[in-house]
């Protein structure tokens, strides 16, 4: 890894803070935002919709966050919220809580100063595609130096659309600290426009775009010591899974099983709570809900097999705040 932010992300320790979904200056055909994130004024901490500042802190604690990655839209209202959240996170977790911001605009010196004073560590710029190869002598070169002068670590983060040597020139010149290349991806939010531009999915892949890992990008760019190519497989298999594992470890009950994918597995029964008391089930092996009882999945199987319960189900769910259920398996 080439940055502290990337190291933390690989460990699943980076909370993703989404601040607004409006981009006043950009309309990228490859923007991956879905309907619930694009052109909205909502803020999300991972999957949690933020209703108050305390939600941000609670979500960070839920996953034992090592740092925070901030992304979203670009209006001035987003800047005001971003600086407030930065101050909030630094006050709560201290200077070791690493923060980085991903942005598609240059912002100017005053914004760089405000972000730095609020506690931002690293800023990753995403110049518009039509500027690639022609950024020297423009505001995109100037902002790299301004950001560094204001105490930030300037870098690039771009989609792997094509190899562009100019990014390497900025690295060699010392203007940018590193360049992250994300494997080019299709999503529900950009699928139609991506196809209109002539892009297609890789065969057998859910999101990676055909040609995103072509030899030109890998040979001309990813071989540079200050370039990191982040694949979609790595994001799913490492970053996301490790984040779920961190959450699961923090919120699991004594009877929950944590899987290798970071999901929680438990049993669900619809018998009266008194039934469990009568059977002598230890209190730590079950909990009573409003209309059912949640219990160790292996104990549920034994109880059904022995005839102590008629039926139930084994539930597998994400440890996220919305508790999305992955699978339900009937036991009878």
From TrEMBL:
Entry keyword set: Coiled coil
Residue runs in coiled coils: 234-261
Annotated DUF8061 domain residues: 262-331
Protein name: Radical SAM protein
InterPro entries: DUF8061, MJ0021-like, rSAM, rSAM_sf
Superkingdom of origin organism: Archaea
Xref: Pfam families: DUF8061
């Amino acid at each position: 890894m080439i940055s502290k932010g990337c190291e933390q992300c690989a460990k699943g320790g980076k909370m993703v803070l989404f601040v607004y979904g409006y981009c006043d200056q950009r309309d990228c055909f490859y923007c991956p935002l879905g309907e619930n994130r694009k052109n909205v004024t909502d803020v999300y901490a991972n999957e949690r919709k933020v209703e108050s500042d305390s939600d941000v802190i609670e979500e960070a604690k839920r996953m034992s966050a090592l740092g925070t990655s901030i992304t979203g839209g670009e209006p001035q209202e987003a800047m005001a919220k971003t600086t407030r959240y930065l101050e909030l996170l630094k006050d709560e977790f201290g200077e070791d809580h690493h923060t980085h911001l991903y942005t598609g605009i240059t912002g100017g010196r005053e914004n760089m100063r405000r972000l730095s004073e609020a506690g931002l560590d690293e800023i990753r710029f995403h110049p518009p595609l039509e500027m690639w190869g022609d950024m020297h002598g423009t505001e995109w070169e100037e902002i790299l130096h301004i950001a560094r002068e204001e105490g930030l670590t300037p870098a690039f983060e771009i989609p792997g659309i094509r190899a562009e040597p100019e990014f390497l020139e900025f690295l060699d010149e010392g203007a940018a600290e590193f360049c992250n290349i994300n494997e080019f991806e299709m999503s529900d939010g950009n699928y139609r426009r991506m196809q209109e531009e002539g892009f297609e999915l890789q065969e057998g892949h859910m999101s990676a775009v055909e040609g995103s890992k072509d030899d030109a990008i890998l040979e001309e760019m990813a071989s540079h010591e200050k370039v990191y190519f982040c694949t979609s497989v790595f994001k799913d298999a490492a970053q996301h899974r490790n984040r779920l594992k961190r959450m699961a470890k923090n919120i699991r009950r004594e009877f929950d099983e944590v899987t290798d994918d970071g999901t929680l597995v438990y049993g669900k029964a619809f018998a009266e709570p008194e039934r469990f008391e009568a059977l002598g089930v230890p209190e730590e092996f079950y909990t009573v809900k409003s209309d059912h009882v949640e219990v160790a999945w292996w104990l549920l199987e034994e109880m059904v097999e022995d005839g102590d319960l008629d039926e139930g189900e084994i539930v597998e769910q994400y440890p996220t705040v919305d508790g999305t259920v992955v699978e339900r398996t009937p036991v009878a």
